[in-house]
Amino acid sequence: MAGTFYGIGVGPGDPELLTMKAVNTIRKVDVLIAPKTEKKDGSVAYNIAKPYLRDDVEIVYQVFPMVKHFEESTEAWEANMKEILGFLEAGKNVGFLTLGDAMFFSTYIYVFRLLEKKGVNIETIPGIPAFIAIGSHLGWPIVEGNDVLSIIPATADKETIEKVMSVSDNVVLMKVYKNFPEIADLLVENKMIDNAVMVSRVGMPDEERIDDILARKDQPVNYLSTVLARRTPEK
């Protein structure tokens, strides 16, 4: 009998933020896939899940290239899928660890789509996204009343970001590491800079909170950084 493939959201960084279902799933799988990029050693998701691993679980690191258009660079993804299929066909249950939530800006989504086409039995375990953890951690209401909240990937083109910010009361800006100076300027233009905060690596030992975003405008930003901002009310 073929095994089951589990996508497991491990949350933003604090191992205590995993759901009970995520922990129970991690403890019952035979193989755990720990995704990583070509540029980094180890896996952040693996480190978060590490306290809950069985001694006999098999850890498999898979490299997933960071590409803008997934469909244009599928060779590595296909190879990883075949490796996963091999485990499943051998009757092993396989877990795939992913930061935050499995269906929210995650590498898992692409793997899910590939395996779904193969008729694999799949179960996805939700996790806490970074911006939700940041809001609770800082006592920062993310959205309330009739406010309009927009979640914006900062990797989108500038025109799209400008349009969305212009009609939003509150914004969550993800992936700000690539064009942080431009994002800082847009927060100023949209009267959000006075009510903005950026947190890097939330829930991890080296977590950092940045309240004066303009002062950090020209400095490098960690990959795992998220900005929460709200529009300053008109006087």
Automatic annotation (TrEMBL):
GO biological process, alphabetically ordered: cobalamin biosynthetic process; methylation
SUPFAM superfamilies: Tetrapyrrole methylase
Key words of the record: Cobalamin biosynthesis, Methyltransferase, S-adenosyl-L-methionine, Transferase
Positions of the Tetrapyrrole methylase domain: 4-210
Pathway: Cofactor biosynthesis; adenosylcobalamin biosynthesis
Pfam families, per the entry: TP_methylase
Molecular function GO labels: precorrin-2 C20-methyltransferase activity
Signal sequence, renumbered to the chain: none
InterPro entries in the cross-refs: 4pyrrol_Mease (IPR000878), 4pyrrol_Methylase_sf (IPR035996), 4pyrrole_Mease_sub1 (IPR014777), 4pyrrole_Mease_sub2 (IPR014776), CobI/CbiL (IPR012382), CobI/CbiL/CobIJ_dom (IPR006364)
Domain of life: Bacteria
Keyword Transferase among UniProt keywords: yes
CDD domains to which the protein is assigned, alphabetical: Precorrin_2_C20_MT (cd11645)
Record-stated family: Belongs to the precorrin methyltransferase family.
PANTHER family: COBALT-PRECORRIN-2 C(20)-METHYLTRANSFERASE
Name of protein: Precorrin-2/cobalt-factor-2 C20-methyltransferase
Organism: Schwartzia succinivorans DSM 10502
Lineage, top ranks: Bacteria, Bacillati, Bacillota, Negativicutes, Selenomonadales
